[in-house]
Amino acid sequence: MIDANLLTYFEGFLTDKRKNLFKTVLEQRTRHFTVVLEDIFQPHNASAVVRTCDIFGVQDVHAIENKYTNKVSRHVAKGSQKWITSTRYKTDGDNTKICLDNLKEKGYQIIATTPHNDSCLLQDFDITKKSAFVFGVEADGVSDYVLENADGFLKIPMVGFTESLNISVAVAIILQEVTTKLRNSNIDWQLSTKEKEVLYYDWVKKTIKNVDKIEERYLNSQESR
Question: Count of CB atoms within 10 A of residue 47's CB?
């Protein structure tokens, strides 16, 4: 539970401009769509995806780590990793199943991004359902498990000789298309009031230097009263 008095105390360390920016951004955040990265081994790609999710207002990124550790480069992410909620699945070799089961329990349909013959073209994708877009490495694509357990397939129309895009480019193209349609729809895509409050509190704390010491000082002052 968020301590309202502590939040007010923390807010004293922020400018009004910063607080208003947080609230403005939160109004554009969504969990209607989410992104899943399966075994992405190049930090610059994973970092660019995180940055893209922040830009298009997608709050959550899920990283499956069966073979490779998902790393984010601060240089590429440009600080966006602070504002995105990242969940890593790295407990064992069955991480893909754990991730997909978790998302399905939350009401997401699993959409594998692949040039599969039966894939839906991006412009025809139905945005009404909560969707988790799964991306794999360029050379291999998503795993067989994802293909076998996906609820649908999605592809970006391509007319050249090359059959795949860099993952960060693919994520950007897909998110730009689906989030634009989402915001122009009547779908209830925004975060709940509770979700906004939790993220706002988290962002405020992340903005303050030495926040743990500041919080400790505040709590000690309350106890001494």
Answer: 23
71 alpha carbon, distance to own chain's centre: 15
End-to-end CA, the chain: 22
Contact 98, 91 (CB under 8 A): yes
CA distance 60 to 29: 10
How far is 61 from 33, CA to CA, in rounded Å? 10
Q: Where are the domains of the chain?
A: 30-211
Helices vs. strands in the chain: H and E counts, helices first: 9, 7
* Per-position DSSP letters for 20-32, written without gaps between them: HHHHHHHTT-BSS
The candidate with the shortest Cα–Cα distance to 137, out of 14, 7, 38, is 38
Q: Which two tokens stand for residue 62?
A: 């899920």
Look at residue 72 and give its three-state secondary structure. Answer: coil
pLDDT tens digits, residue range 1-38?
A: 788 999 999 999 999 999 999 999 999 999 999 999 99
Q: What is the pLDDT of residues 133-175, one digit of tens each?
A: 999 976 678 999 999 999 999 999 988 887 778 889 999 999 9
CATH topology of domain 30-211: Alpha/beta knot (3.40.1280)
